[in-house]
Amino acid sequence: MKETRDIMGMPVSIEIAGVQAAQKNFDTAFDYFVHIDETFSTYKPGSEISRINRGEISEAEYSAEMKTVFALAEETKQLTHGYFDIHTADGMIDPLGLVKGWAINNAAHMLDELGCKNFQVDAGGDIQTRGKNEEGNEWSVGIRNPFNRGEIIKVIYPRGAGVATSGTYIRGKHIYDPHSGEPVVTPVLSLTVVGPDVYEADRFATAAFAMGERGVEFIEQLDGFEGYAVDEKGVATMTSGFTKYTSQ
Fold this sequence. Notes:
Structural class: alpha+beta
Radius of gyration: 18 Å
Number of domains: 1
CATH architecture: Roll
Helix content: 25-40%
Strand content: 15-25%
CATH class: Alpha Beta
Distance between the termini: 22 Å
């Protein structure tokens, strides 16, 4: 059973296989995403992050979730040599580059606790899987052609790993180089990262894309991560171990 709702400005899809595909399990996960949107959306004037950006909330008043995300963001900034930064060019704070994967991973853990063994959670193309699909096969994830979003150019089988893609072909030049404050200018159009879970994949995909052509090399050096990049000429580059995800 699969259900999709528009939350966080993107389609969020949850598919649960087997007897655990109860409506209450879907509702629990979707309610969590609504809560995340209401807390971290920079487009909602009443969200906590918007109030922080307007200076209405002191650091001592931050929620536990906000403190966690800020701590994770600082950790990620250090691990990526400053290429991941939730501070935008205009001085505001936008943690979406970390929050989306973090929220998907948290929702997956909620479904685990509800007894769900076989499911897939997909928010805007970033995905966490568990177990097998309804047919008893491995969950598959399609990497889209950045020149034609309706076309899948590579199918991978994450087997419980997380998958995240960063690029300019969906939302335009929304990723900034924290060192220059300017939109990333790179021949790379999309970079898909497979990591231990979707939170890890998402944060490093964002940073690696900001590195431009060196992004795949950065992913290559990370233990437990693989990457697949497509450039403006349609040439794909992958890390040395990526092919382990391309066979069922």
